[in-house]
């Protein structure tokens, strides 16, 4: 009986110690110098480049664009990148992204995490049945702090909705 009890305890200890490891997100965002606003990365986009690697990080070279629907506002400029890479975000993953401003000469300046907000992830299905995944972040250099880090900025949420609406229409 004592051996049986010890065997059961050993099984629980060994079983309890084996957990499935969830990988970190490990994305490196290269953002145009001084940019503030929403950045949306679209994944699984046909005829676009795969994400390059820099060590263990996937590099996302953000492109600044203008949205005609938001002309005349202070949120018409947004960041975007399209890649054929598949979106991989595992439940429980640690967000270990790095963010850098990049000047015209390629010099990188680290962005404090309190100047970033991980806004959302999602997907939409196109008429042809293909699913496009996306993730959205917000970046600021004028409102950095705990409030921005946890809640982002309301005007950038409006910007995000308009950007997603525009790109969904473009993709269909």
Secondary structure layout plus pairing:
Blueprint: H1 2-17, E1 27-32, E2 37-43, E3 52-54, E4 57-61, E5 63-66, E6 77-82, E7 98-102, E8 108-110, E9 116-125, E10 131-139, H2 146-151, H3 154-171
Main attributes of the structure:
3 helices; five-stranded mixed β-sheet; 10 strands; alpha/beta; single chain; 172 residues; globular
Summarize the structure in words.
InterPro entries: DUF6843. It holds the Pfam family DUF6843. The chain has about 170 residues and is an alpha/beta fold. It has one domain. It is built from three helices and ten strands, in the order H-E-E-E-E-E-E-E-E-E-E-H-H. It has a five-stranded mixed beta sheet, with no helix packed on it. A five-stranded mixed beta sheet has the order 5-6-2-10-9. The longest helix has 18 residues. About 20% of the residues are buried. About 10% of the residues have low confidence.
């Amino acid at each position: 009986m004592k051996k049986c009890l010890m065997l059961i305890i050993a099984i629980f200890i060994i079983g309890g110690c084996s957990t499935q490891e969830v990988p970190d997100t490990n994305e490196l965002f290269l953002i145009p110098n001084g940019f503030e606003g929403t950045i949306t990365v679209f994944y699984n986009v046909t005829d676009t480049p795969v994400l390059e690697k820099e060590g263990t990080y996937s590099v996302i070279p953000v492109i600044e664009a203008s949205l005609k629907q938001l002309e005349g506002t202070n949120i018409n400029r947004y960041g975007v990148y399209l890649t054929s890479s598949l979106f991989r975000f595992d439940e429980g993953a640690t967000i270990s992204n790095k963010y850098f401003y990049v000047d015209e000469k390629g010099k990188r300046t680290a962005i404090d995490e309190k100047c970033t907000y991980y806004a959302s992830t999602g997907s939409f299905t196109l008429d042809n049945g293909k699913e496009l995944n996306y993730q959205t972040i917000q970046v600021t250099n004028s409102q950095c702090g705990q409030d921005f880090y946890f809640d982002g900025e309301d005007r950038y949420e409006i910007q995000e909705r308009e950007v997603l609406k525009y790109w969904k229409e473009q993709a269909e």
